[in-house]
Amino acid sequence: MNIASLMYHDVVTAGRPDDSGFPGPAAAHYKLDEQDFAAHLARLANSGQRFVRVDASPWATGDACLTFDDGGASAVRIAGSLSEHGMAGHFLITTSRVDTPGFTSAAQLRAIDDAGHVVGSHSHTHPAEISRLSHAALDAEWCESVDRLRQVLGHDVRVASVPGGFYSRAVAQAAAAAGIRYLFTSEPTVATQRVDDCLILGRYTLWRGMSPAHALALARGTDALRQRQWLTWNLKKPLKRGLRPLYHFVRREWLNAR
Ligand SMILES: [Zn+2]
């Protein structure tokens, strides 16, 4: 069972990246300006590509998913734009931030849910490296998050994404135990795998500055972009794991220099 998923974050007014989601240059790297995102959506919508809810399986061959991480305040506008184009989105929420400045309110989450989009969890506190937490702390991150969303939405939540892309089998097992049935990672792949009762799905990342054509190519797999993301991700993996302080230093310097 293969499916392509695209990972977006916030959509912001040009020059005001801190208005939605987590502040700072590292987070801003993932935020698209409004005009750019509108161009992405128009290109995706006009392509005939279907964007479906992950929980509406079985998917048809070639279906794709659109996901939006963090739960920044722009989610409600993004959801409105998707609805205009007849697309379903997945909004993965850092639940400890709900009703705080720069993030969605509980009422907005209900509106997004009512409009037919998926509202899911992106952990409770967005830990820096969720894969390094103890089992008890992992259980708390997912259970607290899922409980909060259940209270807000009035129904169970079965979809989530891993914060920061720090996936591990223990992260997935804790999510499954909390009732998550679909867990998006940041692994750039269309392949899925099962951990306990949970389906694990990769995603392709969209950064600011990427063109609408790139987004469509990642959704469709029509050129070498998917392979390039896969190669970059797998080259960085040992660096992330083995040389963590150096990796964070280099990444910070690189982002600050942009
Ligand atoms: Zn995140």
Description:
41% of the residues lie in helices and 16% in strands. The strands form 3 sheets. Strands 6-5-4-1-11 form a 5-stranded parallel β-sheet. The protein is of the alpha/beta class. It has 9 helices and 11 strands. The chain starts with a strand and ends with a helix. Bound molecules: zinc ion. Zinc ion (ZN) is lined by residues 69-70, 122, 126, 163-164.
Question: What's the number of extended β-strand segments?
Answer: 11
Rg to the nearest angstrom? 17 Å
CATH superfamily: Glycoside hydrolase/deacetylase
**Helix coverage percent:** 40-55%
Work out the oligomeric state of the chains in this entry.
single chain
Shape: globular
CATH class type? Alpha Beta
Strand order of the largest sheet: 6-5-4-1-11
Low-confidence stretches: none
Provide a compact summary of the structure.
With 258 residues, the protein is an alpha/beta fold. The chain has nine helices and eleven strands.
Secondary structure elements and pairings:
Layout: E1 4-8, E2 11-12, H1 25-28, E3 32-33, H2 34-46, E4 64-70, H3 75-84, E5 89-93, H4 106-114, E6 118-121, H5 135-153, E7 159-161, H6 169-177, E8 182-184, E9 192-195, E10 198-201, E11 204-205, H7 212-220, H8 225-242, H9 244-257
Parallel strand pairs: 1-4, 1-11, 2-3, 4-5, 5-6, 7-8, 8-10
Antiparallel strand pairs: 9-10
Zinc ion (ZN) binds at residues 69-70, 122, 126, 163-164.
Provide tags for this entry:
258 residues; alpha/beta; TIM Barrel; five-stranded parallel beta sheet; four-stranded mixed beta sheet; 11 strands; 41% helix; 16% strand; globular; binds zinc ion
